[in-house]
Amino acid sequence: MADKPTLAFCIPNYGPLDACVYHNHLAVVAHASRTFDIKCIGSTDKMYLHTASNALVRGALEANVDYIFWTENDMLLPFDVVEKLHRHRKDICSGLYFLRSGSYQPCLYVRNDEMIEDDSCGFVPISIFPENELFKVQACGCGCVLFKADMFRGIEEPWFNLDENKYGQDMYFYKKVYDKKIDVYADTSVQCEQLGDKVKTSIEDYRKYLKDPNSRARGFIQASSGIKI
User: Fold this and answer.
1) Beta bridge partners of 191
2) d(C-alpha 216, C-alpha 30), whole Å
């Protein structure tokens, strides 16, 4: 039997995890262990977010893993999320989740060259997208994403930096990805929930939001890729 590919499960975190998130992530790791050899990289508690993120990537590369699965401390994931994203064999492949700000914005973005000079690094949200499809984006956040580990070797450190961008370390990272012409994909059949103040934000919430005549969804419309999941 061939060796399993190796996987680092990464979640930069400060302080304790919500119990619901903790048990959900344990289930994800347990299910992924059927397909991957899971590598323990180390703890990031009591570290700044971007310091923790860079330390996790560095540890994963030192452990010579094949893949890095990245999530956050407020994400509730499908138990088979890693396997579903892995089947696409992409350098970067994200699931679908939404911001908690009340706008329910999908964490999917495309590049707009007219906005390069602002603090968003030129990324604009996608507001309408095909469900249950795989398609290209230019940025996707880091709440539910599978990376090929070698992809990081082609990007200079630091991979993440909160000091350089008010929109967070994710846009800083994806600006580097964009400059290196690395393809980013999203699989909208992998639907996650984000936990905030004990309220879960899901795709059902976003569907309701779009139907609300008072909603102000703004951003690009993603055409169908034709790659049905």
Assistant:
1) 96
2) 40
What are the structural domain ranges in the chain? 6-221
Asked whether the predicted pLDDT for residue 136 surpasses 90, the reply is yes
DSSP 199-229: EEE-HHHHHHHHH-TT----SEEPPP-S-B-
List beta partners, residue 75: 194
Classify domain 6-221 at the CATH topology level.
Spore Coat Polysaccharide Biosynthesis Protein SpsA; Chain A (3.90.550)
Q: CB-side exposure of 94: number of CA atoms within 13 Å?
A: 26
Q: How far apart are CA 95 and CA 190, in angstroms?
A: 5
Q: Are 107 and 55 in contact (CB under 8 A)?
A: no
pTM of the model: 0.92
pLDDT in tens, 158-196: 999 977 656 678 888 999 999 999 999 999 999 999 887
Quickly tell me which residue has 């879960």 as its tokens.
Answer: 200
Rg of the chain in Å (alpha carbons): 17
What tens digit of pLDDT does each residue of 28-73 get? Answer: 999 999 999 999 887 777 788 889 999 999 999 999 999 999 999 9
Phi then psi for residue 23, to 5 deg, are -70, -35
Backbone angles phi, psi at 50, to 5 degrees: -70, -30
